[in-house]
Amino acid sequence: MDEIGDMDFWPALAAEYLLPLFAAAMLAGLDARVVAGWIRGGTFDEAATILRAHGMDVYARQLAGFGDEPLGAAEAIKAAMLRPFACPGPQS
Predict the structure, then answer these.
(1) Among the four 9, 25, 30, 90, which has the fewest Cβ within 10 Å?
(2) Which DSSP letter does residue 27 get?
(3) Over the stretch 8-67, which tens digit does the pLDDT of each residue have?
(4) Percentage helix, strand, coil, to 5, in the chain?
(5) Does 92 fall in a domain?
(6) Residue 18: which domain range?
């Protein structure tokens, strides 16, 4: 199977963006709801600003690169990033 069709590809790429997003949230005292909002909004400007303010320019540039992802890829990455935020209902 090619890399794009590989089931591990999108979650691995999503993890590359989640790390700096959670780092920014932690540095600013924000919670996971804010991270989910950044992902749903598709823009990471606020997170990048927080990271730059804390000298984490590499992470800030990494988030800026999300805008360079092709539209279909960006949507697949966002879906993979949001997957950990899905909370199932009560289990019986």
Answers:
(1) 90
(2) H
(3) 888 888 999 999 999 999 999 999 999 999 999 988 999 999 999 999 999 999 999 888
(4) 70, 0, 30
(5) no
(6) 9-84
> Does residue 65 sit within a domain?
yes
Structure tokens at 67: 């805008």
| Segments of the chain assigned E as strands | none
Residue 1 lies in a domain: no
pTM of the model as a whole: 0.83
Query: How many structural domains compose the chain?
Result: 1
Task: Tell me if 4 is assigned to some domain.
Answer: no
pLDDT value for 67 = 84
Residue 71's pLDDT band, with cuts at 50, 70 and 90, is confident
Look at the block and give the residue holding tokens 């019986």.
92
